[in-house]
Each structure stands twice: as C-alpha cells, then as structure tokens.
Amino acid sequence: MDRLPQKFVLEACSKFAFLEELGYKKTKGKIVAPEDFRDTNMVVQYIGKSVGVEIYWYFAGANIGVVFFELQNGELPENKFFFGESNDASKAISLYYLARYLGQWDDELFLLNDVEKVTYTKIKKREKVINERMSEVLQGLSCATRKYATNIINGDTSVFNDVMKYYGEKMKEWYGYMRGCGS
User: Fold this and answer.
1) Is 36 left (phi over 0), alpha (psi -120 to 50) or beta?
2) Greater confidence, 139 or 31?
3) Burial of 107 (0-12, 13-18, 19+ CB in 10 A)
4) Max Cα separation, the chain?
5) What is the pLDDT of residues 126-137, one digit of tens each?
6) Mean pLDDT, to the nearest integer, of 107-111?
7) Is 8 exposed, middle or buried (0-12, 13-18, 19+ CB in 10 A)?
8) pLDDT for residue 88
9) Which residues contact 115 (CB under 8 A, 6 or more apart)?
C-alpha cells in the first residue's frame, strides 16, 4: 500500500476511534473502484447497530470526508443514495451537507474548502492541504462528527430526509448552473 493511503487509514482509525467506544465495529480500510482513477476512493467504515459511518478519501477530487448511512438488516448496504428515492439502496448523507444544512459550513473544523468544486486550481489547493495536514483534516472531521452528528451516530437518522432534500436542491441548482455554462 502506498504511503499516503496507508497514513490515511491509520489516521482515520485513530481520529474516529471514539466510534468503537460507542459500540461501532471497524472494517478494514479498503480501496474502492481501483480500476478507474476518476472513481477511486480509500474508505474506512464503521458499523453501528443501525447506522454506518464511512471516512473516505476521493483521490481525483482531493476530498476527504465523512458519510453516514442506514444499514440494511444490520449489514453494509450494497448501494447508497444521497437524494431522491430508491428501493434498493440505503439513505446516506455527507457530513459536509449536514453542516451546510445546519448553517455550520463555515466552522473552522472543515479544513478542506470548496469540496464540491472540481476545478484544477481547487483540487490542487485541497491536495496541498491533504498532503501537508492530513491528520488535522481528519481531526477536524472527527470533531465535526461529534459536534453535528451526535444524534446520527446514536442511531437517530430522522434528519436524513431533510438533508437529502437540501442536497437534492443544491444538486439541481449546481446542475442547472453547469448546463447554463455551455450555452
């Protein structure tokens, strides 16, 4: 395993160890979608009684974040969905959009700025922060998880529908903006 992905797994496990104290079981860190760099992620997952937590590093977009998702019969779901409806996937939300929904995106705990922006310049800035301050990025996300997602990690996913609706609206705005750029 490359040095930085290995560091990511070690740091994520260290910073999110509090989940194990809450009864979560940690899964082994793994690379997802290695066949296409544009989709490749490194993930560390934790499984609670009804909720899962995934700490991810999306390489191509230089984005480290946290996702919360509902388990399916106590197991990791095959698929997750972040907005809309699905009968064959589990509801999921990101910590970033939870914070946005709560009006807390400007919290200094979030060291990676403009995570939804995928321009070359923004990605390079985030890569620099990740390469130089990965431990701090993960510590901030860990603190933000405890600060903004306490109910979720305790099994209450009632906020999921509202955050998913908010995310869907933001995606429509963004997609509409992006479609208008080519005109």
Assistant:
1) beta
2) 139
3) middle
4) 53
5) 999 999 999 999
6) 92
7) buried
8) 85
9) 61, 63, 65, 96, 126
Residue 17 near residue 119 (C-beta atoms within 8 A): no
Residues in the chain: 183
Query: Number of helices and strands (H, E) in the chain?
Result: 6, 7
Q: Which two tokens stand for residue 66?
A: 């946290």
What is the C-alpha separation between 1 and 129, in angstroms, rounded? 21
Supply the angle between the helices 3-15 and 120-148 in degrees, to the nearest 10: 20
Angle at 133 between CA 150 and CA 27, to 5 degrees: 50
Strand partners, 91: 81
CA distance 133 to 113: 13
Phi, psi of 79 (to 5 degrees): -135, 155
User: pTM of the full predicted structure?
Assistant: 0.90
Question: 156 is written with which tokens?
Answer: 């209450």
> Hey, which bits of 23-151 come out as E strands?
25-26, 30-32, 41-47, 51-58, 63-70, 80-81, 90-94
